[in-house]
Amino acid sequence: xxxxxxxxxxxxxxxxxxxGTELGRFLRARRAGVTPAEAGLGTAGPGRRRTPGLxxxxxxxxxGISVDHYTRLExxxxxxxxxxxxxxxxxALLLDTDEHEHLRGLAALAARTVPxxxxxxxxxVRPGVGLLLENLRPGPAHVVSRTGDLLAHNPAGLRLLAxxxxxxxxxxxxxxxxxxxxxxHGLFADRDSLLRGCVARLRALAxxxxxxxxxxxxxxxxxxxxxxxxxxWERRDVRVSGHGRTAFHHPDVGDLTLGxxxxxxxxxxxxxxxxxxxxxxxPEHDAIVLLDLAAHEPEAPRTGRPPQR
Length: 309
Known about the structure:
Blueprint: H1 10-13, H2 22-32, H3 56-63, H4 67-74, H5 83-92, H6 97-110, H7 127-135, E1 141-144, E2 150-153, H8 155-159, H9 174-180, H10 184-187, H11 191-209, H12 213-225, H13 227-235, E3 243-250, E4 254-264, E5 272-277, H14 283-294
Antiparallel strand pairs: 1-2, 1-5, 3-4, 4-5
Helix pairs in contact: 2-6, 3-4, 3-5, 5-6, 6-11, 9-11, 12-13
């Protein structure tokens, strides 16, 4: 698995907010997160600063645009920034590659004059993908939708996420699991980073398809049920990285660290295959073999306490 008041419904949760545009809200959030020193302005300018971030006129100067133009962008009164303006703002705000692409997507979304109807993304997985999951055994692997719904898995791909199998198949979602399932709280060694990654991936989707029903459903539910999610959602971080290493405190096989790689499945509405791996002959590889074998045994009820030995 690869990172106050809030909206009271799914639509609000998925990025609508009160007034302005998502482009303006993202610019405002990023402006507040860059200090004058980080932007190369040295010490703060004259006058008392209300926030540690950049002022509008400072960011406009750094980007080489007028203060009026930038203010109109941030307030949603200007919705068609040119590519050169978007790139200049990205440089001035010190955006990384993912955030820069996110800003471009928000600019394209703001420029639409007629909303495009939201399409219901498909959930079916081709038979060949199921065969591929089997061929990856004993390595844990699963296929998820663009919003993290678990669509298919091999045995260890489900058992690795301890307790997820307790939920009905229609409820299995990686973000819902990470924020709401009791077993997930102790499973991940760096849970904070994992939670940030879950939210950042959904935020990236909101840049171009914020009103999609699948996004509204999961974001709206988590905004209502998880203060942690609501806090991270307002940060407007974006991330789409799909590889790395994850450390687990697994109740069945103990501590292990696995590499993982996410692969986009061509010809699908954003489905991804996430595969975990370990070097043969290592304790981690032995652990995933045990997870694969354990899938043929009945799972004991989880009480939140470690198993008795």
